[in-house]
Amino acid sequence: MSEAPDRPVSPHRAASAVDLESVLARISALQAPTAGGGLGPEDLESRRQGLRDAIEECRILGRREGGLAELTGDEAISALAEVFRLASWLGAPELALGLAETVGALAQELGPAHHHTLTIRFHLAGALRSCGQAQAAVEVLEQVVEGTEQLLGDDHPQTLTARHGLASACTAAGHPERAVELYGRMVDDAARLLGPRHPDALSARNNLARARQEAGDLAGALALQEALLRDAQGTLGQAHPYLLAFDRNLAQMRAAMEADGASPGV
């Protein structure tokens, strides 16, 4: 059995005993690889408890006078981002939501367009999505998109990534029309920045077609997907994973059209 990382003497350590160095060390210990790469039930729960303790110490540090400033450095922000990744890896993304208060305080301290703010807000949005809180994720991602546009500009790859995350969250939150609007802009941006036949530009069109389907425009989605597949067949190799995915999506749309009693396109 793999050895569990060291845990705190008590999960309720006095606030005065918590400092940045101890918090970073605790998070680092949770990243240690396990023998054989797997986690047994006891090790899994031990690491989850260790993560709970680390999150609580982050909260304590963030609330202490002068402590929040300690969490604004590069190393501390990287550690906070790692907490979100660890929570997902341990199958407990809800644990990372305990950092929501700290993330909000850091955003206020650093400003909405600071690159550290954007990083931790993006991770928080991912945790919210994983926990089924899509609407809350939308609200966070709106802030991320606005801040990224302000910091990096409309055409920066990170801005495009943030918009994609927002569009996906809008779909999950039951706002398909807004997702269609966002994906439509991404199609235009990708074609302009990368060229209309670039794999990522083709992928953007696939996302738009799926969003149109989610919005109830199955005929429009099918027409988009058929045109996409024709263009992709002339650009991508037959074994390209994008082409295979586009083909599967088209088959699914045609099946949905037939189930609705309409005639699919040819």
What is the fold's blueprint, element by element?
Layout: H1 20-30, H2 41-63, H3 67-70, H4 74-89, H5 93-96, H6 100-110, H7 115-130, H8 134-152, H9 157-172, H10 176-194, H11 199-214, H12 218-233, H13 241-259
Protein name: Tetratricopeptide repeat protein
Pfam families: TPR_10, TPR_12
InterPro entries: NLR-like (IPR053137), TPR-like_helical_dom_sf (IPR011990)
What features would you describe in this structure?
This protein is mainly α and 266 residues long. The protein has 2 domains: 1-110; 175-266, Alpha Horseshoe (Serine Threonine Protein Phosphatase 5, Tetratricopeptide repeat). The protein is built from 13 helices and no strands. It has helices spanning 20-30, 41-63, 67-70, 74-89, 93-96, 100-110, 115-130, 134-152, 157-172, 176-194, 199-214, 218-233, 241-259.
